[in-house]
Amino acid sequence: MSKVPGWLGRVGAGLTRMGEQLDERRKEAAAGEALPGESPAAESVPPPPDYAPAIAAKPDPVAAIPWGIRVAAEAGWRLLVLAGTLWVLMRVISAVQLVVLAFVAALLVTAMLQPTVARLRRFGLPRGLATAVTAILGFVIMGLVGWFVVWQVMENLDNLSDRVRDGIEELKRWLLDSPFHVTESQINDIAENLSETIGTNTEEITSAGLQGVTVMVEVLTGILLAMFSTLFLLHDGKRIWQWTLRLVPAQARDGVAGAGPRAWRTLTAYVRGTVLVALIDAIFIGLGIWFLDVPMAVPLAVFIFLFAFIPLVGAVISGALAVVVGLVTQGVFTALMVLIVVLAVQQIEGHVLQPFILGRAVRVHPLAVVLSVAAGGLIAGIGGAVVAVPLVAVTNTVVGYLRAYSQEQALRRLPEPHGATALDTAPVPPPAASAGTEPEPEAAP
């Protein structure tokens, strides 16, 4: 009976081994044969032969795009965002164009009058009194100039109309005697067509007159806004600037705070230099016109002064106006002499006065001047053409300062040099001077 438990234990162990073997065979069969609806296991796929070509794995789609195209795409969508923002900004500015132009005009007038306020403050006047005195004197002088121009035009209007009529008759005689074979009937036909055109377009002329009344109302409104804005800018300009700085993010506040005064100095230099150059142009061209006995010499000189604030285009328009008045009133020879005077003064202005008076403070390339004046004229008319160049000059100053400021901040973030690097970057002391001798001065750059 003692042998029975041992035999039963051996039988149980054998059955256990047989179960394990059956489980292993079942797993091998499940791995080798594919079930219905399933793909065969990876272990059952035979390896490719040695002579088969290697098939590279497909790369990531982002890595498959060339680097240049990815850079262009990244820059492209950012440019689209900037263009959309600029378009929205221009739409907003066009909707409130009168307010924007009035405020910009106030900035220009403030840049011209602010040095006077500072000078009166140094003399001991309170800020309010200095602002009031400067603003009143400035507005009175501008009003007197405008009134003088209107008065001179009205006084010489009858004389000018007679001179224009005589000039037209002289031009008619010249055309009849010219080699162009113009007959009197052709001249009369042109005059009749012109009168018929004026008669048939009476309604359009009337509507244009009504639009002119609307424009005059808008101009007066803009002048009042500019006057009030100038008063507040002269009196509270510093506090307005400090309040504006609080709207700037803290990370960019230091850079903007440094760029603001430099931009204001550029604007002040531009306005004062332009006023001085325009005054010189008006005086010398006006004297030349007066010596040539051209009527309305003083109003023409004032027009030359005002149009000088429009770079390039204003000089052409005012000079052409003076030449036309000389042509219709005094003849071809006088017109040629006026043209010579205008060209001579403008050449002196462009090559001597502007580089000497404006200097490097507002140096802008002539191509940038032409493009900015054209863009400003297309966007906002004459007002846009006037403010285009100072805007470009101020932008150039701000961008240059911010670039230098960012480079300086980047250099400050670099770790301090040590070891051999510190020896390379350390300043080298000048050689010691011998007794009784002075060190030689360094050469100017």
UniProtKB/TrEMBL annotation:
<comment type="similarity">
    <text>Belongs to the autoinducer-2 exporter (AI-2E) (TC 2.A.86) family.</text>
</comment>
<feature type="transmembrane region" description="Helical">
    <location>
        <begin position="86"/>
        <end position="109"/>
    </location>
</feature>
<protein>
    <submittedName>
        <fullName>AI-2E family transporter</fullName>
    </submittedName>
</protein>
<dbReference type="GO" id="GO:0055085">
    <property type="term" value="P:transmembrane transport"/>
</dbReference>
<keyword id="KW-0812">Transmembrane</keyword>
<keyword id="KW-0813">Transport</keyword>
<feature type="compositionally biased region" description="Basic and acidic residues">
    <location>
        <begin position="20"/>
        <end position="30"/>
    </location>
</feature>
<feature type="transmembrane region" description="Helical">
    <location>
        <begin position="269"/>
        <end position="292"/>
    </location>
</feature>
<feature type="region of interest" description="Disordered">
    <location>
        <begin position="18"/>
        <end position="50"/>
    </location>
</feature>
<feature type="transmembrane region" description="Helical">
    <location>
        <begin position="129"/>
        <end position="150"/>
    </location>
</feature>
<dbReference type="Pfam" id="PF01594">
    <property type="entry name" value="AI-2E_transport"/>
</dbReference>
<feature type="transmembrane region" description="Helical">
    <location>
        <begin position="213"/>
        <end position="234"/>
    </location>
</feature>
<feature type="transmembrane region" description="Helical">
    <location>
        <begin position="368"/>
        <end position="394"/>
    </location>
</feature>
<dbReference type="InterPro" id="IPR002549">
    <property type="entry name" value="AI-2E-like"/>
</dbReference>
<feature type="region of interest" description="Disordered">
    <location>
        <begin position="418"/>
        <end position="445"/>
    </location>
</feature>
<feature type="transmembrane region" description="Helical">
    <location>
        <begin position="331"/>
        <end position="348"/>
    </location>
</feature>
<keyword id="KW-1133">Transmembrane helix</keyword>
<keyword id="KW-1003">Cell membrane</keyword>
<keyword id="KW-0472">Membrane</keyword>
<dbReference type="GO" id="GO:0005886">
    <property type="term" value="C:plasma membrane"/>
</dbReference>
<feature type="transmembrane region" description="Helical">
    <location>
        <begin position="298"/>
        <end position="324"/>
    </location>
</feature>
